[in-house]
Amino acid sequence: MATPHINAADGAFAETILMPGDPLRAKYIAEHFFENAEEVTNVRNMLGYTGTYKGMRISTMGSGMGIPSASIYYKELITEYGVKNIIRVGSCGAVSTDVKLRDIVIAQGACTDSNVNRIRFRGYDFAAIADFGLLEKAVNAARAHELPVRVGNLFSADLFYTPEPEMFEIMAKHGVLGVDMEAAGLYGVAAEFGAKALTICTVSDIIPTGEKMSSDDRQNSFNEMIQITLDSVIA
């Protein structure tokens, strides 16, 4: 049934959905990777589509930026539309020079400065981790495509423009690979409501050095990431 944030009909979404932050990226995925894609929701221009990939029914939808926005869509897709697998596909900023531009980071877990998981976990620390089955398939797909892949921790930040830049050094010291804004929220929502979740990001910039990908490189790396993600879900 429709919600205040999603106006799709019952059954409009597949059990597996790819979720970039940008709804236009969802449109791009549907137009360039899906067959017979149809728009199923457009509330607030947060576009969602369902089609097929190599015969498998699959969906994509934007989530917006940040845990509060994304968590609304994650929760409603699971509880109101029966989505069972949510894969966030986005970008992250690396906090260590050991991680390179265009590396694919698969978030085994996600640290955060957000309080959302403590709220849902009664004030205690919650280990926000990916579903191992989804993670394993994604790693295997990346290796099959011979693409550089790193598996480990992300840090999901509430603030894009942080007043605590010294935290990047602390993250690197503790083995965190990069910073995003949604992974920890996704893992918390999925755990609470019984779904499986994974976050896959391409490294778009290196925070300590200021290196950034060009717009062409961003698009090429996005295509590579989507390709391995789709190949992993049909494996």
Structural account:
- There is one protein chain.
- The chain has about 240 residues and is α/β, with parallel strands linked by helices.
- It has seven helices and ten strands.
- It is about 35% helix and about 30% strand.
- Strands 5-8-7-6-9 form a five-stranded mixed β-barrel.
- The longest helix is centred in the last third of the chain and has 19 residues, at about 215-235.
- It starts with 15 loop residues before the first strand and ends with a helix.
- The mean pLDDT is about 95.
Strand order of the largest sheet: 5-8-7-6-9
The largest pleated sheet is described as: 5 strands, mixed, barrel
User: How would you describe the oligomerization state of the chains in this entry?
Assistant: single chain
Number of strands: 10
Q: Could you tell me the mean pLDDT?
A: 96
SSE blueprint and pairings:
Layout: E1 16-19, H1 23-33, E2 35-41, E3 48-53, E4 56-61, H2 67-81, E5 85-94, E6 104-112, H3 116-120, H4 132-144, E7 149-156, H5 167-173, E8 178-180, H6 183-193, E9 196-206, E10 211-212, H7 215-233
Parallel strand pairs: 1-4, 1-5, 5-9, 6-7, 7-8
Antiparallel strand pairs: 2-3, 3-4, 5-8, 6-9, 9-10
Question: Main traits of this protein?
Answer:
235 residues; alpha/beta; 5-stranded mixed beta barrel; 10 strands; 28% strand; globular
Summarize the structure.
The protein has 235 residues and is of the alpha/beta class.
